[in-house]
Specification:
The protein is an alpha+beta fold. It has 10 helices and 4 strands. About 50% of the residues lie in helices and about 5% in strands. Strands 2-1-3-4 form a 4-stranded mixed β-sheet, with helices on both faces.
């Protein structure tokens, strides 16, 4: 069986998981512990980043390299167009998703994390003690802004990232206006890369990824809740429902959420 060494919350790992599910390839997830667990990844692959795919004796790091390996090795349900121009567009869009959308999405998510206490606490694991949860929720946004300034996560950086993402979402909505997928009638690597890259703008509406209770379907204010972008997020939810396999290990609701997920007000 294929083994995917990953961080569950990684958008790059999510891109690979989408492709594996689309190609209907069974695989085992190996969750890597940040820091100490990356030593094993380095010993295996010569570098510390995830995702890394183990396919028999082959070790493939990097989500793009993994996608291309899967396409060569398991060509059924192709993710690359055969037409040269379409293929080039597909690869360019994957690079756009990885190199532009992902880093900007991280910044605006951190901006929402700073500005909205409910968003901060919603992202904490379910097992987080109430004392720590309350402390995280009570942290003043000004202090968090100060921490982020100088490392690309200050207020100005987040504003620039949000503006860029608005342009990206407008472009994606236009591309989907008369097409079921970004490059035509069949899903490609571009679709899966863009879908994964936007995971932190608005979380999937079901627990495809191991996320805290109540976060499904929630997203960054000013992006996830803008009616003009709904076309894109509806498309992404449809892509997930068509091809992504929901988790089967979802734990039963905790006592605090027995009546349903706790609402998260991040609007």
């Amino acid at each position: 069986m294929l083994a995917l060494y990953q961080f569950e919350a990684s958008t790059y790992a999510e891109k690979v998981r989408l492709i594996l599910d689309y190609k209907q390839l069974p695989y085992q997830k190996v969750e890597v512990t940040p820091g100490v667990g990356q030593v094993e990844v380095f010993q295996m692959s010569g570098q510390r980043q995830v995702p890394v795919l183990k396919d028999g004796d082959q070790i493939i790091p990097d989500s793009t390299a993994i996608a291309l390996h899967l396409e060569r090795t398991y060509p059924d349900r192709a993710i690359l167009p055969t037409d040269p121009k379409q293929r080039g567009l597909c690869l360019a869009m994957e690079s756009w998703a990885d190199e532009a959308i992902v880093p900007n999405a991280r910044k605006v998510m951190i901006g929402a994390f700073k500005q909205h206490p409910n968003f901060r606490t919603a992202l904490l694991p379910t097992a987080t003690p109430d004392l720590l949860r309350n402390l995280v929720g009570a942290l003043p946004g000004d202090i968090l802004n100060l921490v982020g300034t100088g490392v690309g996560f200050g207020p100005d950086d987040i504003k620039v990232a949000a503006t860029a993402l608005k342009h990206d979402l407008e472009a994606l909505c236009l591309m989907l206006e008369n097409s079921p997928y970004l490059l035509g009638s069949q899903p490609t690597l571009a679709d899966f890369a863009v879908a994964a890259a936007t995971m932190y703008l608005k979380f999937p509406d079901r627990q495809y990824v191991d996320l805290p209770e109540g976060i499904c379907g929630k997203g960054v204010p000013g992006l996830a809740d803008v009616p003009e972008y709904q076309v894109f997020f509806d498309w992404r939810d449809r892509l997930y429902s068509e091809f992504r396999t929901p988790r089967t290990d979802v734990p039963p609701p905790s006592a605090s959420s027995a009546s349903g997920p706790t609402p998260i007000s991040i609007d």
